[in-house]
Amino acid sequence: MTAEMTIGARETLRMLEKGRLSEILIARDSDHFVTRPVLEAAELRHIKITCIDTKKSLGSICGIAKGAAVAGRLSVREA
């Protein structure tokens, strides 16, 4: 994991609720029950949501070998 990203629904949701994220990345092929809480929280806070085609692609963006359903970019002040 890179210092400027969160990986996974739980970690991303936690940081989102603390107001520390500037963008959410969601894999389109993720299970809805995993992504829904993060999407709802991001929409309430008016955080940018970016859709990535696959979990594998999102994992690659995050610098990990396996797929990721959800990730977040930390705000500039937090990175």
Give a short overview.
The protein contains three helices and four strands.
Mean pLDDT equals: 92
Write the element-wise H/E pattern from the N-terminal end onward. Answer: EHEHEHE
SS class:
alpha+beta
What is the terminal-to-terminal distance? 13 Å
Beta-strand percent range = 25-35%
The CATH homologous superfamily corresponds to Ribosomal protein L30/S12
Main-sheet strand order equals 1-4-2-3
What's the CATH C level?
Answer: Alpha Beta
CATH architecture level-2 label: 2-Layer Sandwich
CATH topology: 60s Ribosomal Protein L30, Chain: A
Structural commentary:
The chain is of the alpha+beta class and 79 residues long. The chain has a single domain, classed as Ribosomal protein L30/S12 (60s Ribosomal Protein L30, Chain: A). The protein is built from 3 helices and 4 strands; from the N terminus they run E-H-E-H-E-H-E. A 4-stranded mixed beta sheet has the order 1-4-2-3, with helices on both faces. Helix 2 links the parallel strand 2 and strand 3. Helix 1 runs parallel beside helix 2. It is globular, with a radius of gyration of 11 Å.
Blueprint of the fold:
Blueprint lengths: L4 E3 L1 H9 L3 E7 L4 H13 L3 E5 L2 H8 L7 E5 L5
Helix pairs in contact: 1-2
